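Folding Task

Wanted — backbone structure
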Amino acid sequence: MADAATKRSYPKLPTKNWWTLRERFKGSIPQKVDADYLQSVLSLSTPGSAANLIGPLRTVGLIDDSGSTTDRALDWRDDSTYPAVCAAIVADIYPDTLRSAFPEPAKDTEGVLNWFSRHTGAGRSASTAMAGFYTLLTEADPAKAASKPNEAPKKRSKPAGAPKPTRAKAKGTSATENDVVGKPPRTDPEVSISLQIHIDPSASAEQIDQIFKSMAVHLYGES
């Protein structure tokens, strides 16, 4: 078992890379793991970022000094033996003082972070990475792979609302021609004219005819 000693470093392995590599090993375990292999299967942008993972993989015992995969790697990819592999890695790497103080680091993330910061002299970013990997190992839960942190939650689509009613515009009418709401239609006053005509009994039919024609001209504009 590891003992607490002078300042030292502990492995930092991103959670995303841990689960992705394990899925790859489940499908087909390679005979050797090098930077080129890691860059390819983990979709890393540079060879340097891939090379930085070789050391942590050796430290946890998934590959040996030559890069060959180990028996531990075979057990690591199996869900039934995964918890035992994680427990063995924790016992091999981390001191009793840490394991005794924080057997369930997820319940005191700040305390675990401070422990790594004190015992390694690393900055907050590096200490956070070391604390995160220690927490991952102590959880030893293969089901955690189902919720990788790199997967963004899907946006929930908004339900389509009812279309807004549109007011039909009458063709050929202007705003001034539309009736004002609540205002009664305009009506012109009606004029009633009553005429009394007195015709001389001695007037001839021709004269009577002429009288009515004259009235039509004056009253109705008829000629």
Summary: The CA atoms of residues 197 and 212 lie 10 Å apart. Residues 15-146 form one domain.
